[in-house]
Amino acid sequence: MASEVTPVPSRGRIVMLVDNGVNGDSRVQKEARSAAEAGWDVVLLGRSPDKKEHTWQIGDAQVRLVRVPAPLRRRRHEYRRAILRAPLAYKPGPLAAYRKQKMKAWRADLSVRLVLARRSGGLAALRLLPARLAARLLSRWVGLRHRQTRRLDERRKAMTSPLDRFTTAFWQRTMGDRAWRRLDPGLWDYELAFGKEIDALKPDVIHANDFRMLGVGARAKLRASAKGRTIPLVWDAHEFLPGLKPWDPHPRWHVAQCAHEKEYARHADAVTTVSETLATMLAERHGLAEQPAVVLNAPDGEISPEQAAEPVPDLRELCGIGADVPLSVYSGAAAPQRGLDIMVESLPRLEGLHVAFVVLRPNSDYMRSLRTRAEELGVSDRVHILPYVPHYQVVPFLSSADIGVIPIHHWPNHEIALITKYFEYSHARLPLVVSDVKTMGDMTVKTGQGEVFEAENVDAYVRAVEAVLKDPKKYRDVYETSGLLEQWTWEHQATELDAVYTKLVTGSSRGER
After folding, report:
1. Sign (positive or negative) of CA dihedral 25, 435, 291, 446
2. Which of 24, 69, 253, 456 is the least buried, fewest Cβ under 10 Å from its Cβ?
3. What is the widest separation between alpha-carbon atoms in the chain?
4. In degrees, to the nearest 5, what angle opens at C-alpha 10 toward C-alphas 7 and 11?
5. Rounded CA gap, 66 and 82, in Å?
């Protein structure tokens, strides 16, 4: 990737790190843009979704997507044969599938040859008998080995055997927070991809988003320190990791991420996060010297002239409905724990209501399952699945809906913050229907901007939607309250974040480039 960088403004260079492709992560995009507008030279390093490197601008901030080869994603034991547990299994890799397919091809070829032999008559068909018998026997043998290979692979993914549980506990006991090196060595793939890029940029501040990038940023800070340069590290914690529903089903993944975070949290010179509750939890878990600064996931209060000039898609036009048709909307990440199924399940009881899902991957397995369920219920004509719009268009895009829905389930991380869509719905002045997760439920009751229902309870959800549709003005009028929306803007949050950067750079020695 290019090492040439633009001249550094007097305030210094911030290198931001994120473990995704940047698009779809509105918080990271807003952080980069606002920091650049405040006079920092910003380079945002993200993960490329393919084998190519990508570069573009967000305002005056430069975005670079780094290739992250992942040969360490598989654990060491997954490359070895299990002679004792599965003596007939093929060695890990493509060999089992190859053998099975090869046998199918051989038997298919013999079937065609048999047809031709029978046409020609004589002893031609009889001559094929040994080969056919051999193919049948070998197919059974290969099938047995293939099944044992598949079962071994499933057991290795589940890791529920006494031996697997013992080895996991052994590494945790003997290595402590360093155990992630054994439990999920794939974390090193991020280090090997991002580390050299950070070093070449010689940052004045490293801003590491979330837990994977924390270690990458901390190690870059330590390398710079060994060369006589002091680089402060900002850790932006988006989640409370122990309460996160694991993204990866592997039983060692969550344990490894928690250990990795605990090892490197102490190297952060400042911590920012998304709510006061999470700030307190992080301070207690990691023994932080200072309470993390709170930077809410609020939307832009103002956008640039270039952004304002872009036409905003019409939500109702994309759904194919008029202004008089009731429309509820969900905008954000799509996963079972987000509870989107309740919006489909309730439609037979909410006559005339349409539902729009605005999601990053409209054709994901989960969204396809919702579409299938809508067809089964006979309401598919009232379910609309749409792709994301740019983050600076979200508020005007959603504003033509009648209800903004947040139906998430009870998970520790869902209880502790006002999430991005809460603020986006509010700025779109939508009445809310929110599940009874603590922070968002409490805020909705306090402000009166919507109704709260018991999570995963279809009856309660239907009652909440009906209440909002009956008197939407009552809920929209709340947004006229002085100061409510003003404090929920990114401009206000960017000031808080800039103060964190300024304090760190003022107190650190930037050294020579």
Report:
1. positive
2. 69
3. 97
4. 110
5. 36
Residue 491's H or E segment, with its range, is helix 490-506
Q: Which residues pair with 16 in a beta bridge?
A: 44, 207
Could you give the C-alpha distances from 235 to 110, 182, 299, 301, 393, in angstroms and in order? 63, 24, 21, 25, 28
3-state secondary structure 328-372: EEEECCCCHHHCCHHHHHCHHHCCCCEEEEEECCCCCHHHHHHHH
Tokens of 507: 């107190």
pLDDT of residue 512: 39
Q: Which tens digit of pLDDT belongs to each residue from 244-286? A: 888 888 889 999 999 999 999 999 999 999 999 999 999 999 9
Residue 395, classed as helix, strand or coil, is helix
**Would you give the distance in Å from CA 107 to the centre of its chain?**
45
189: amino acid identity, one letter: D
List the structure tokens of 67. 């290739």
Task: Give tens-digit pLDDT for 72-93.
Answer: 877 777 767 787 788 898 888 8
Cα torsion 331, 417, 209, 339: sign? negative
User: In whole numbers, what is the pLDDT of the chain averaged over residues?
Assistant: 91
Under a CB-based contact definition with an 8 Å cutoff, are residues 211 and 190 in contact?
Answer: no
Give just the sign of the alpha carbon dihedral 97, 103, 106, 108. negative
Assign 513 a pLDDT band (cuts: 50, 70, 90). very low
Q: Which two tokens stand for residue 467?
A: 């209440």
